[in-house]
Here is the input.
Amino acid sequence: MKLKELESWLQQVDAFEEPKILLEQYPTSPHISACMLYTIQNTFNDIEGKLVADLGCGCGVLSIGAAMLAAGLCVGFDIDNDALDIFRRNAEEFEISNVDLVQCDLASLEAEAYAKKFDTVIMNPPFGTKHNQGLDMKFLWAAITMAKTAVYSLHKTTTREHIQKKANDWGVKMEVIAELRYDLPASYKFHKKKSVDIQVDFLRFSKA
Amino acid sequence: MKLLTHNMLTSHVKGVTKGYPLLIKQATEVKVNEVDFNPQFVTRMIPKLEWSALVHAAEELGQRQDLPDELVPEYENNEEFLKKVHRVLLEVEVIEGCLRCPESGREFPISRGIPNMLLNEDEV
Here is the structure.
């Protein structure tokens, strides 16, 4: 499937109806999702025929994209019932059968129980900006534990050095695959600007 | 919830030492969907599985058919066997039911195909 085709499919994926501020719910844009997934498969061959986990899957745009790129199975994990409901509807509408959904709290998941069960973990985790500082690192730790081969994740560029240090502590290799501008349109009432650009790193972690 | 996913899920209720495998109870709605068969994927998943937990779960759902108690040798080349495993891992889905922790008895509901593994504050 070509990148443009994947992106146009993902444009039709329904996003959050009433995003919850405290959970930092923002949809991953179809463009960023398509670029991420395309790279993960074409450069690294980490989606097709693989067991993939999507941590903090929300409405499932990354999972559905992975399923379209012929993942063996993509399992989405999220804490929010409403988001998972939308994900489920999306999967039904697209007739995607190679996804599965689990409701759980990734911040308190005993990731050891899932150690290396997944070939690949993909995610756009919460950045930890809403009274939940450090949440991005908790997600990352869970991801690195659960993945056998690689973790692909988005993190604020401002946290790059901090994450690199952690990666070293954890004995994993970190690569910055791309620098992206994550354009968040005003989605909450308190947003004063029409949209805001956040500089985001697309990172790949692999066992050194 | 597919049985490949079920094979990984564990209960983490406080104090539980072995919350695995989760027992599937009150499965009032089970579906069997068609999923594309990828023999290499199935072959690679088999070593990751707790085989007896898979067989037991399939049996609890009345979907075991003739899945054997033990893995057949050289299954990588046995397409018939791989198709049986594929069906049970990816095509059988529990839509409504619940998962019971074998140690604490705590039940995790499955609704609309989604197991809810969230714990209450006092269980964490």
